[in-house]
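SEQUENCE AND FOLD
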Amino acid sequence: MYTNGRAQEPSARETVYAKLKEQILNLELPPGTALSEKESSLVLGVSRTPVRESFVRLAQEGLVQVLPQRGTFVSLIDPALVEEARFMREHLERAVVRLACAHFPDGHLHALEDNLALQLKSIEREDDRRLFELDEAYHRILFDGCGKLNTWRAIGQMNVHLNRSRMLRLVADRHWQHLYEQHETIFKAVKDGDADRAERVMQEHLLLGVRDLAHLMDKYPQYFVSGGDGKP
């Protein structure tokens, strides 16, 4: 943000919101964690007001639950919402990768290649958070290169439960090489203009979440909605 040519510092509310959301998405605050306005304000060095406002905003996004007489909790991951977001991403990304094979700017192609190199370094370092960030950036580059960045942003509004399950998968299973190989194959298909291969591998890539979700629910049942109202 800029005012009179000078960068404007983010408000305490925006800073707190961004920090809490990051902690929830990267599982530093796991599903079911009890949240305290007082404790969060002390840890973040702010008054309770921006914390309270952030809790409300996160609740609207489905990341936090406010339960009367019980308190505020990080919401459990809802498998139905995970699958709905995955379904939407699969069909949109298959379409987008076909567009990319028809025409993709050289600058974005180079950005994908650079991203892949950074993914390899993250795998070598076993850095799950960085790999997740690069995974997100990789798919965003595909949408951006096809002039569909607003579509990517719309997907992001539905992705909060899916992204937590994806992050949990990276933490639970550090055999990440096949994820990289799928990204690399998609890159080569886009570079070669091979739309059928790109779409096929993209579908396989996004269908991994179906198998992974069942495994994660079995391994971490306390993190998932298992029926009823989904309350922690």
